[in-house]
Amino acid sequence: MRDRLDLAAKWLVVAIAFSVALPAAWVGITSALFLIAWIASGKYGERWARIRNHRIAAISLLLFVWMGITLVWNPAPWRPAADDWWHYRKLLLIPLAISVIDDPLWCKRVFFGFLAGFGVALVVSFLRWFGVMHDMGGVGPYAGFGGHTGFSTMLAFVSFACIWLAREWPAQRWGWYALGVICVINLFFINTGRTGHFIFLALVPLLAYSRFRFKGIVIGIIGACLAAGALYVVSPRVKERTDHMIADAQKFQKGEVKTNDGLRVGFWKHTIVLIKRHPVFGSGMGGFRPEYRELATSEGQSGDQITPNPHNEYLLVWSQTGIIGLAVLIWLWAAQWRYACTLGLKERYLTHGLLVAMIVGDSFNSFMLDNLEGYFYAMLTVGLAYAWPRRETPAAA
Fold first, then answer.
1. CA 158 to CA 165: how far, in whole Å?
2. Which is nearest to 20 in space by CA: 158, 163, 142?
3. Can you give the pTM of this predicted structure?
4. pLDDT band at 142 (very low <50, low <70, confident <90, very high)
5. 140-154, 212-226, 265-279: which range is least confident on average?
6. Any alpha helices (H) in the chain, and if so which ranges?
7. Could you point out which of 56, 266, 279, 397 has its C-alpha 20 to 30 Å from the C-alpha of 160?
């Protein structure tokens, strides 16, 4: 029975990956079923050894635990604060999933499970664009099953991944190239998410670096700038979103702060004020909302000027969990980047591409807090985790 439950837990990890790009309820249900199967199947000692000896799993668990510890000194009521902590459950999912997915075949199933679910969302996006399916809500039109920010992020990453998948499987390379082109078309001509646009352009230097090494970074930056200019000319979507961003910046310079980007800048400034109050340990998990509301209200702000998060993961983590929490988050990504350098080209640059997407996206959003983007990072980390160097136990050494 334990072996069957262990097998069920493995398939449920694949199901979570498949559900990432689909309606949010799907990933919630599959995650709950996985947790039940994980607990019921036992083998805790063996799984704890895997987590402890897998650097990425261990750091992710450490960050989640530290966030929980900061609940002790948060100023918010216990229940909403615990709910805010639970929003970061993706950090817990990483070590739990890695503890059962420790085989190249299963990691491949997780990775391609995500691609299969994304493929469904991509088809739905085009069906909505063609008018075959009605708008399902969410932020931004034609964004699959969720918001345009998360969907644009996945579009940018998958278009980058298709280049490496075509190299890995040359017999199917034209199929991968076609998928990549379709993703680029959707990203820049249909989707309205600016985050995905920025991530795609940030991935261009990484792609050039893989071919030309350090001089490729310069080539990539120039190429990204030229691509941005060309897309502004040929894509109505890019032109519309860029013009809107420029208009917001001009209004902000004139003192009008109640614009989309003006509000975002205001969120950042006020969050920095909160960070200065408790830079080392933070206000505690769940402390951002009451502290920000108090600060904004004292300055006569209301409505959209009061936010539950600053739309910047680094500022949010720092304000609630202190410089310690921010340092662990950066340590997690630095360790992931460093150890990816020891892998084969495909795993190396897919992991680096994932991290670039998170680093860029978290500058304008709170990806680890958000549902879709957080699961996107967690499941791709698991799907690329089988080849990670593990710290050897004394017996193995």
1. 10
2. 158
3. 0.93
4. confident
5. 140-154
6. 2-19, 24-40, 44-53, 55-69, 78-86, 89-100, 104-129, 148-168, 173-189, 194-212, 214-234, 236-253, 260-277, 288-298, 313-340, 345-361, 371-383
7. 56
